[in-house]
Amino acid sequence: MFATTIATPALGYKDFTCGCGSFSYLYNRPTCYTAPEYLTEYCVVSKTGDSFKYRMPDNYGGLSACNICGCYGDVGSWQSGNNGAIFRQIYTATSTSTLVCTASYRTEVACISGYYDPREPDFMVYVCSKCPSLTDIDDKTLDGTTPYANTSGITDCYIPKEDFIASEAKFQDATGLYTITDDCYYVE
To answer: Which residues have C-beta within 8 Å of that of residue 116, sequence separation ≥ 6?
Structure first.
């Protein structure tokens, strides 16, 4: 009688660097080699700042690093800033090699309708400028607006003809009394 020993090949491991930190559902997974589990795979090897190393078996199936890490792009919801400004965070995840997923964040700033020139005068403080208004001879003030949000320049500001008609606004200059019957755009 002969004895046969069947050897089970030992699996290797790969450590993936995941740059998306707490944006990943894996970020709070158990740490490798911590009692009582003593995990050697499907665990977090280390965390540094907003990045972590995640361990997978060598036969992980060839997925991209960002898929392994659970890092995906995301566009946050618009939030209110100051003086007509709105902003949102845009998050991008990119597999820069087979074992590394990097993440980047940027802030997109826009203005709501009626404002222009989105900017950040102080760190994380976003503001826009209000479109100019026009006052008629009876002290009726007509506010300027923009045809859409996210305009950049003051020349996108205008007062709609419907506002002139509805308010029955009257203006006067050296040539006499007049009304405005069309959209009135700001001109520099």
So the answer is: 128, 129, 131, 146, 151, 152, 153, 154, 156, 157
